[in-house]
């Protein structure tokens, strides 16, 4: 039986492709949240003999792009069949002249698989690192072992300041705690949250599933730091953290982070802590490894609409290892 390729304008076609081992950004529920925004999904689906593979995409002015947003740690194909992926890559030339895919992980083979499939399908491909991902491999350590290996300044700060704040860690969604999180974020150094409603809906769903770890640090009863983590399949994901600038001398962020690391290492017994994307220097104090995140720009040279972008890409990527395959 041959491979059947189809296209759909709703994410419901991803039902069943987010198996038990799926991460937070591989689930139908996550794509359904994104669909509530101002986007037009295009779900590219390949099937053969009951096996399926999907590329969750969205329409953009320049072509097609990953169905992802600023909050996504990763984006990748849903499914692992090489033949299905190559068939999709070949058929997608009938839908667009350009596809941008990011943020792609390399450690699971997603970047290489996509690059190979689209190259075999006749696309010109440019790969560039678009971000980085700091992680901690627990490797069987207890929190005390991990903490003893942190920089001396961090350990001294916690020893001096820990008693100045009270910490609560919730594994369910709580209206009061979420308002505290919002209040801290509003008074932090961070810009206003884009699509804060998506973030709240995500937190509610993670709380209902028992995956939420919402930490609040208070000084004299007043929230001064907040962090939003989730835990599943042996991984703790650090989604959001903030502290009130006026309370910076309390080092409440350090105290709260240490409490959450202790929670996920000693109680949840995770194997990996994932600090998401970003080049923030402070992440290096808490994490021990750094993984690249990539963007693939795929252009169909057969279509004149792709030529201007291809010319610009050639100018930007003159080094041999950046040239299209």
What is the compact description of this entry?
The protein contains 10 helices and 12 strands.
Describe the structure.
The chain contains 10 helices and 12 strands. The protein is of the alpha+beta class. It has a 12-stranded mixed sheet, sandwiched between helices. The two termini are 31 Å apart. The mean pLDDT is 94.
Poorly predicted parts: none
- Report the portion of residues in β strands: 25-35%
- What kind of sheet is the major sheet? 12 strands, mixed
Helix content: 25-40%
Helix and strand pattern = EHEEEHEHEHHEHHEEEHEHEH
Number of helices: 10
Query: What is the average of the pLDDT values?
Result: 94
Strand neighbour order, sheet with most strands: 1-2-3-4-5-12-6-11-10-9-8-7
- The chain-level structural class is alpha+beta
- Whole-number radius of gyration? 22 Å
Total number of β-strand segments? 12
Name the overall outline.
Answer: elongated
The rounded distance between the terminal residues' Cα atoms is: 31 Å
């Amino acid at each position: 039986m041959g491979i059947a390729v189809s296209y759909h304008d709703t994410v419901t076609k991803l039902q069943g492709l987010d198996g038990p081992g799926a991460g937070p950004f591989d689930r139908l529920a996550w794509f359904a949240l994104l669909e509530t925004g101002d986007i037009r999904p295009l779900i590219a689906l390949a099937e053969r003999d009951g096996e399926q593979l999907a590329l969750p995409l969205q329409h953009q002015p320049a072509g097609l792009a990953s169905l992802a947003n600023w909050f996504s740690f990763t984006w990748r194909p849903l499914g692992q069949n090489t033949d299905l992926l190559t068939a999709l890559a070949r058929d997608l030339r009938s839908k667009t002249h350009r596809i941008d895919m990011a943020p792609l992980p390399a450690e699971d083979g997603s970047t290489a698989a996509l690059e190979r499939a689209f190259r075999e399908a006749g696309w010109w491909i440019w790969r560039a690192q678009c971000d980085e991902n700091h992680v901690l491999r627990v490797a069987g350590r207890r929190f005390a072992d991990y903490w003893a290996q942190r920089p001396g300044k961090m350990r001294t700060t916690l020893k001096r300041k820990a008693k100045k704040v009270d910490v609560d860690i919730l594994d369910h969604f709580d209206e009061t705690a979420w308002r505290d999180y919002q209040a801290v974020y509003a008074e932090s150094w961070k810009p206003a949250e884009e699509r804060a409603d998506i973030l709240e809906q995500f937190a509610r769903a993670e709380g209902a599933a028992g995956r939420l770890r919402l930490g609040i640090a208070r000084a004299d009863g007043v929230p001064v730091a907040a962090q939003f983590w989730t835990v599943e399949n042996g991984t703790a994901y650090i989604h959001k953290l903030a502290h009130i600038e006026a309370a910076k001398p309390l080092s409440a962020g350090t105290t709260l982070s240490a409490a959450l690391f202790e929670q996920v290492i000693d109680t949840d017994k995770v194997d990996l802590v994932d600090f998401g994307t970003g080049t923030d220097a402070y992440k290096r104090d808490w994490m021990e490894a750094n993984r690249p995140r990539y963007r693939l720009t795929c252009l169909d040279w057969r279509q004149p609409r792709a030529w201007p972008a291809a010319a610009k890409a050639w100018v930007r990527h003159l080094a041999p290892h950046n040239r299209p395959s």
